[in-house]
Structure formats: C-alpha cells, structure tokens
Amino acid sequence: MAQPKGTVVLAYSGGLDTSCILVWLKEQGYDVIAYLANIGQKEDFEAARKKALALGAKKVYIEDISREFVEEFIWPAVQANALYEDRYLLGTALARPCIARKLVEITQREGAQYVAHGATGKGNDQVRFELTCYALCPNIKVVAPWRLPEFYQRFPGRRELMDYAKKHGIPVPVTPQTPWSMDENLMHISYEAGILENPKVIDHGRLAGVAATGLRAFRVPVKVTNAGDGATRCSALELFVYLNNIAGKHGVGRIDIVENRFVGMKSRGIYETPAGTILYHAHLDIEAFTMDREVRKIKQGLALKFSELVYNGTY
Hints:
Blueprint: E1 6-11, H1 16-27, E2 30-38, H2 45-54, E3 59-64, H3 66-79, H4 91-110, E4 114-116, H5 125-136, E5 141-143, H6 149-152, H7 158-167, E6 181-184, E7 189-192, H8 210-217, H9 236-249, E8 254-260, E9 266-272, H10 274-290, H11 293-311
EC number: 6.3.4.5
InterPro entries: Arginosuc_syn_C, Arginosuc_syn_N, Arginosuc_synth, Arginosuc_synth_CS, Arginosuc_synth_type_1_subfam, AS_cat/multimer_dom_body, Rossmann-like_a/b/a_fold
Domain Arginosuccinate synthase C-terminal: 220-315
C-alpha cells in the first residue's frame, strides 16, 4: 500500500485513459475527486458519476458550464475572428481553459493539493490545462501521468491500458470499429489519432458526427433568418445550439487538416464546427460593412496573434 499523498482533483471524462488514471492515482496513495464538465457533449452523466464512484473516487463533481463556455470563451473568439493556421476554429483549445478554471475552483473549495489530467505528453492539451491552472493558482501541483516514467513505461500502448482496465473491472468504450479518438463540445467534434494519422484514410462516412449525416442526407438550402418553429431564442447558448442543429444537418463546418502542435509535432485533425463556422463568416460580413481598410489590417494581425495564444494555451 502506497503512502498517503493527499487529495487530487482529476479532470475526468469517463473514457479509457482517465478511468485507468483514476484507479492508478489511488494505487499511488491519492484520494481522488473526479470532475466532469458538461460543455455540450452527448454524455450519460449519471452513468459517468456511478462509474467514477465505483472505481474509487472519493467524490464526483459534474457541472454544466455550457453557458459560460459560449459567453466567455466562444463569443470572444468569434469577435476576434480567431482562426489557427487559416483553418482551425479552436474548438478544443477554447474548451480546455474553461474546464481548467472550474478544476481550480473545486481544488480550492475542497482544500486539495493537486490537480491531474489525462492529456498526453505529445499534445497541446497538457499545456492548456496546466498554464490555466498555474495562472489561477500559482502554487498548485499538477500530476500529469503521461509524463511520468512510472506510468508511461507501465502503459506504453493502448493494449496495456486495455489489459489494466480488464484487470480492475473498468468498462472500456473503445472498440475496433472506432480506432480513433473523438472529443465533443458545443463548439465542435474532433477526430484524431489512430488510423487517421495515415493521410490516405479519407473515409469520413465512418465518423459519426452530425455533419457526417448532413453530407449524406441534406441537400436543400435553408435561409436562417429566424426560428422556423416559431420559438424565440434569446440567450447565446440557445442560439448556438440552434445553429449547431441547422448547420450540422447541412454538413456545414467539416474540415480535414494537418496542424502544427505547440510541441512541434504535426497532427491530423478532422473537425466539425457547424455553428462556429456560420458565426465566423457572418462576423466577417458584418466587419466588411463597418470596418475601414486600415483598421481591418490591424484587426487581421491581432486575430492571428490571438489565435496562436489560444491554441498554445497562453491567452
């Protein structure tokens, strides 16, 4: 039995990595509090709560932060015309600081000493999570298992994680039919890794996002001037959800790109950003009517820098 090390608040998704990490942290002597943020993903949150408790979490927090995600993170990005490397609307990059901010709040509320996350040592999310945590609480301690030799040497691949999950009774959602990772929030759905690392793999029809349905099913244009059902949508969140539904059904906002990560690696990502794409172009149209040439030049330079800061987790 490991010596007690204190309490850690884990950014928990319920997937393979964070479920295994929850159990592993307990093996290392931590008391684990799991935090799951609702930022618009399709998730059985009650099932996730029960799963985390069954795996040994001391407590589970599940909070709906969709509204603040739209109003405090997505809207400023739309206003800035934020676009990384001319293509990427920053759906994941915007979500991570929103989650990390709540992670710090819970850590302080619970008197915990540590936060933990399941981001890999090769990706961008580790930087986004940690810089936000340090900015809000400079003395906080971060446990990043995928950068710890005792963790990554024990789990060099997915097979070892799957075996560990089986040994400890952790339900595993990953199947051979979905050999890639998927991340969903109100802003977008992303597909990365696995077979998608091969640029020859272009079978988008196997991806299960709403825009994929639109690519196959909806060919009739729709003019979005008001809500066709007669309902009134006043809040930013309601409007964003409404646009996501309409635009997604018509296949709006899917891109397939290779981007430069913060750590210097290149990574392929397939992203669906229906509402974000509409709002980005609508905002450009508004600026065309209201902004003069010289101001627009300045704005374009600022937008480029802002996008880099968001992508790298330093804004």
